[in-house]
Amino acid sequence: xxxxxxxxxxxxxxxxxxxxxxxxxxEQCFDKTWSPAARxxxxxxxxxxxxxxxxxxxxxxxxxxxxxxxxREIRAESLIQxxxxxxxxxxxxxxxxxxxxxxxxxxxxxxxxxxxxxxFGAATGPLTLVLRVPGRNVSILHGEQVxxxxxxxxxxxxxxxxxxxxxxxxNSVRLIGDSRSNVSQVPRLHNMNGCxxx
Length: 198
Description:
Blueprint: E1 11-15, E2 21-25, H1 36-50, H2 69-87, E3 99-107, E4 117-124, E5 128-135, H3 140-157, E6 164-166, H4 170-179, H5 186-190
Parallel strand pairs: 3-6
Antiparallel strand pairs: 1-2, 3-4, 4-5
Helix pairs in contact: 2-3
């Protein structure tokens, strides 16, 4: 009744103040077609949604996979910016705020595909941050990409001046150079290692 058959008809998923993914109900315009019983049912439904239903009650997998890509990107960027402010790593050099350096590394450097390893991605400039990615399915490529992503996010926060990124990762340098052409790089990205990072 009233066209409400799915949660999407009631509201949309948002990240609440506590970090939980909850339903934010749509504002309902009660016209004369809404009977008193329908209004009570709407009030009961929205109260249940507000007081306990979270996405983790419905999803049996990592919640990140259920959040829209744009929301995940915003959340990840905010986290990287917050970590850089909280960690307060000492900056290697004091410059004009336009120069950034990044790098990636892996421990152990000679690990095989089956071995546990840890990859590090680092970026330094006016702010410094080192991020760690553990697992078996990670490689030095992921460390370089995490360093590049971190540098780009942190550089985006600084002044409107031109920003310079220093990296020795030639795959990224070539891809960035090629992306300035009129040729779409999307088909190429689909077949690259670490395409989701790119």
